[in-house]
Specification:
The chain is α+β, with helices and mostly antiparallel strands and 469 residues long. It contains 15 helices and 15 strands. It is globular, with a radius of gyration of 22 Å.
Length: 469
Amino acid sequence: MTDNNSIAAALDARFFAPLRRPRTRRVGVELELPVWNLAPGKATDFAAVHVATDEFLGRFDFPDTTRDDTGALYRARDPKTGDELSFDCSFNTLEISFGPDEDLTIVRRRFGEYYPALQEALLRRGHSLSGMGINPRWRENRPEPIGNGRYRMLLHHLKSYSKYGGSPQFHDHPDFGLFSCASQAQVDADEKSVVPTINAFNALEPFKAVLFANSPFGERGEWLCGRDRLWSHSLHGLNPHNCGMYGVTLRSLSDLAGYLVSTSVYCTERGGKYLNFAPVPLSEYVGKGTIVAEYWDGNAQAHRRCLFSPNAEDVAWLRPFKFEDLTQRGTVEFRSVCEQPVRDAFTPAVFHAGLAEEVPALAELLASDTSLYGHGYGAAELRAIMSRREWPSFVDRGALAAQLNCILDLAEEGLRRRGFGEEPLLAPLRRRADTLSNPALEQLNRLERGETIEQIAADYATWKEASGV
């Protein structure tokens, strides 16, 4: 088998074979919540986090557990529901993810059991969770990855950006994965729906920036979706096809496969060790013969160099981070949304689930849009523009508010089609659409009025039951 054929077969097995089954209405939800120390200027105390985690597991039955090299528990799973408590990259970020389910109101009720228990355990130890896209103690927190091969490799990889010149213009926060937080949703897809879904939601991204921004970053907080720049101007963005938006309209599954072949591989595993190496486009990878890599030597507490031979099976380690990501589960994962205030934690999931039922209508609505499109800018440029605090003069605020409400009308219709009574969870987005505001802008306005980041983080940590669900 030639290199191209072996890569194509490996890609098909990983990404496309799972699409060859009937599509369901199941949705997966992942919530990344920053953990912060309530004491001003103090870093997260990992010991306090571990004790709170143990207390949670004493109350809820999550028997499948995984520990890092130091013995600290960083993942626990309930095999009955598929729900999982874990830490993302570091113990500064707690993630609650849920097994795929059709009815998001049921999933939300489980969150309504887990979250108060975790929050109460942390508050008694001087810590808190919050619904923010940037950890409020990101400057003070210890930039230490979870002590295992995967997370050590990832941070080592991102810290090596200085080897690659100045394109893109890299920022100096390679540890951004330890303090930036997302709200991710996965919707089921099949061979017929996957390409139209990716195209429609790619075009939707500028509007999502207006609704969901919650990671202000920059000297004056000028980037309301700072997470976008933290990803694209890191080593993940060395190959722009590895993260962010699609710069093309996909026409077929073959186009999508071709796009995946253009993304880069930067890690694999050999002999139980995670190997990190300079990113290589998948189209060139197998033909390299040998590649110089680095791995963590736990005995010497240092990184060492080695050589390895690439093969097509390493497609299993391909890590695209697109805003609309085809996964190995037969789903499209939406990755561009910042974590939301906890009371609104399920708005992104129901928004995406509803619109996934209305993809043709959504595509048609966006194709005729003039509130943002039609002014000389493409989808990726508009996402960057609408992620800023100040918008250019061509943005008609009234027309934009009306279009956002049309999009929400479609999402609501899709939720009615799903039939689980999830529509009330869209209510916070109606308010945002009408006022063209979002949690990031609210945060900055409150800071300018004299409130502290601690007050805002405490407010964004509040869990309130939504009426009607």
